[in-house]
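#onboarding

Welcome to the new folks! Below is a worked example of what a typical request in this channel looks like: someone posts a single protein sequence, and someone else replies with the predicted structure as tokens. Don't worry about understanding the tokens yet, we'll cover that in week two.

Example request:
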Amino acid sequence: MLVSQPPPISLLPPELLFRILELAVEGLPATFRMRASILRQFALVARDWREPAQALLESRVHIDSYHRARAFLDRPRRLGRRLVFDELVFFFDFAPEEEGFYPLTEFMTQSICHLDCEVRFLHLRSALYLDCFDLRLLLLPAFRELRHLRLDMPLESPADLDVLPFRLRALTLSGMVDQPLSLFKAVLPDGGTSLTSLSIFVVQSGGWLHERLLVAAPSLTSTLRRVAIATHWAPLPGSLLAFLASCRALASLTLSGVPLAQVEHLIEATSSPLEALDFSLPKTPSRAGSIGTLFERLLSHSGARHLRYLTAIRRLEGGTGEKLERVAVQRGGCVCVYETTTRRALP
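Example response:
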């Protein structure tokens, strides 16, 4: 008698199948409908695909309205499976042009945070509402494994809240949003000794958040390994330059929209064993042959002696479609890459 054999896909370890499906949607943002559509189709392929596809579908969740929160809470799930959010986004603004749109409510936010879940990356967004997320929610078991916090909205640390029971590894801040010193003291209870990654968007009219960070966590200059600074071609304040130059363990530095003179200054002034540097160039076309000269000049600075990767990116507008050109050359032990990205101009 012939005995039916299970399909080969059933023989794969669940962890490997999860990784295969994860790679299939890698790079697609959580708000992109195609990602959800692909994962829903995967869930229908075979019984063994259903669980990893469903877990991936719920690993990156963007909640921007009452309706999305309600739909997420009402979604049928297998009992006993804990939710794991690799990215959970709460967007508290509203879209008045959409008929029947209701903004995210405090009750719905609390309901999601009280789920049996684990949140690894929390992103709080709001351009209009002030202090619409109760920081006490971060005391819940769901946030004990929180590793990355991104803040695009103002928060206040309640007077009765001392420290939060997690150890952040990454913090992303917007300089357009002013944050109090008490907030940083709460989210970095160990003085920032676990924080290895910092990203800040700097605007001239905003508060200098790095100064408050240093007051709350003076050890940051010895623990940060990755720093990303973005601005709109405005000179960075001297205190921020001094902060970056004093980071002794920095291995990766990304500078977007920072004037080239300050990029060179940081390479020369840094005391860290910098291995990777990414920076952007103005949109204006460069002179023929100047990119190679620029690389040579940057690598001649004393702070570039440990560099292994040097990337210059120029983003252009006005093309007929999206196009990427990439040229890589070897300069000693460093790979130098020049990328130009052309994007279609908006009508």
